[in-house]
């Protein structure tokens, strides 16, 4: 399988369409992930769980499932008030840095009169190993990128307690009173060279 196929397609792509949908689930991957890679245990299509597993559970049979990566604003699945799911509740699921991205996207939509209707559809956030307070590994990652490729400004913003992250968190508190928020962190260390550590620990 080609590496691009393993990572998955760009944009917002529908992966499941029930006959009577009730909720939109939108999965967003993080750094170095992919619309397929992040949500698959292996390269096998049978392990692409938002597409292959969720529809088989009775609880999820009436849910839409979308996989997002790259440019979402031009998607035909969002913001079209003529579509039957235009007022359908949205559940956002973010992995790693994308958790910060979906928080910021929600804030921008909530503050923009053109997208407030879309923002009001968002009811729940699921954050998987999202560094809400940053990560101590951000500095090391940025140094590695500088040596191999070039440094990335967004990686520097991931350092623990960065002003960018703090600003987003402070704003998000003012818009999250009616939201259901779930956050999951690592409980098993990963191997990085000679180290075994948490990339995003409970304090993040």
Topology at a glance:
Layout (H helix, E strand, L loop, with lengths): L2 H5 L3 E6 L6 E6 L20 H4 L10 E7 L20 E6 L2 H13 L5 H6 E7 L9 H11 L4 H4 L6 H11 L6 E5 L5 E3 L2 E3 L7
Parallel strand pairs: 2-3, 2-4, 4-5, 5-6
Antiparallel strand pairs: 1-3, 7-8
Helix pairs in contact: 3-7
Describe, in short, the structure shown:
With 204 residues, this protein is α/β, with parallel strands linked by helices.
Search tags:
six-stranded mixed beta sheet, two-stranded antiparallel sheet, globular, alpha/beta
| Number of E strands | 8
Shape: globular
Low-confidence stretches: 70-74, 140-151
Please compute the radius of gyration using only Cα atoms. 18 Å
Mean pLDDT: 76
Quick one: biggest sheet? 6 strands, mixed
The fraction of residues assigned to DSSP E strands is: 15-25%
Roughly what percent helix? 25-40%
Total of helices: 7
| Helix-strand topology string | HEEHEEHHEHHHEEE
Instruction: Please list the strands of the largest sheet in the order they lie side by side.
Output: 1-3-2-4-5-6
Say what oligomer this is.
Answer: single chain
- Protein structure class: alpha/beta
Question: End-to-end distance, in Å?
Answer: 35 Å
Could you explain how this protein is built, in words?
- The chain is an alpha/beta fold and 204 residues long.
- Strand 7 and strand 8 form a beta hairpin.
């Amino acid at each position: 399988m080609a590496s691009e196929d393993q990572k998955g397609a760009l944009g917002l792509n529908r992966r499941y369409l029930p006959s009577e949908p009730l909720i939109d689930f939108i999965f967003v991957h993080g750094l170095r992930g992919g619309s397929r890679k992040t949500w698959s245990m292996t390269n096998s299509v049978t392990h692409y769980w938002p597409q292959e597993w969720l529809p088989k559970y009775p609880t999820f049979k009436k849910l839409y499932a979308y996989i997002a990566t790259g440019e979402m604003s031009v998607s035909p699945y969002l913001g079209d008030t003529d579509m039957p799911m235009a007022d359908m509740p949205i559940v956002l699921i973010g992995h790693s840095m994308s958790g910060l991205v979906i928080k910021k996207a929600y804030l921008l939509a909530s503050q923009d009169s053109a997208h407030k209707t879309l923002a009001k559809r968002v009811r729940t956030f699921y954050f998987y190993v999202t560094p809400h307070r940053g990560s101590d590994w951000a500095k090391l990652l940025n140094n590695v990128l500088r040596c191999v490729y070039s440094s990335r400004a967004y990686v520097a913003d991931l350092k623990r307690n960065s002003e960018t992250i703090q600003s987003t968190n402070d704003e998000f508190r003012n818009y999250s009173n009616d939201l259901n928020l779930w956050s999951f962190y690592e409980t098993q260390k990963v191997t990085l060279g000679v180290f075994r550590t948490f990339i995003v620990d409970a304090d993040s």
